[in-house]
């Protein structure tokens, strides 16, 4: 049983991870006054909660003395927020955490990263900037970088692509503007992502420091066009216009997202949920939520 400090616990990934962590570990989380606890309200008695506004990062790490820090907090910048807000969440906060980790004997720091090119957005740029800093601390602890492909599942934020499309289709929107949809993407179900984190958390790397990087993805790629058309079928929607080509590709768009997951598989992990199973379950869950 380890002492684990988790950031981003009220978000989609963090909340799903927290549900697993509390069954096996002593967990503390970082939160803000504006954080919504709707996803983890039933776990409040099982965790220690530190408010960032009233505690410095150094004092939190010194007080809780975690053996592991898992950093999931992220600002995607999807709501036209100022760049400095994105930098604060994706660069400044984890820099404070990794510095405190070095000061107070944290053994392992697990960072959540993106496969996106740094030129795609302020979000991807800030994540890449932290990664460069992150590597410089690998002489003091085991630094693990988890590079996630598009993860999805029931009750994700409606700004995330899969959830957005499902919600639009289930609500019977007249039209969904899309790019041409020829770019290939890898989509991985949230439960598989959680299991990947648990695998890395529990794995004895056999050393006190060093940098490790793992790509977390399924073993199937699909074009955006095929994905959206299949979601339309699963949602039993016959009316919504899928307006492919109405939007341009983003600058530095990756047209074929394929990664090597052999490193994480070597630790004993492999994706267990097929794309068909994951999408069907997500659609059914979202539809059930709408009906209630």
TrEMBL record:
Signal peptide: none annotated. Residues 4-204 form the NAD-dependent epimerase/dehydratase domain. PANTHER family: BIFUNCTIONAL POLYMYXIN RESISTANCE PROTEIN ARNA, UDP-D-APIOSE_UDP-D-XYLOSE SYNTHASE 2. This is CDP-paratose synthase. It comes from Rurimicrobium arvi.
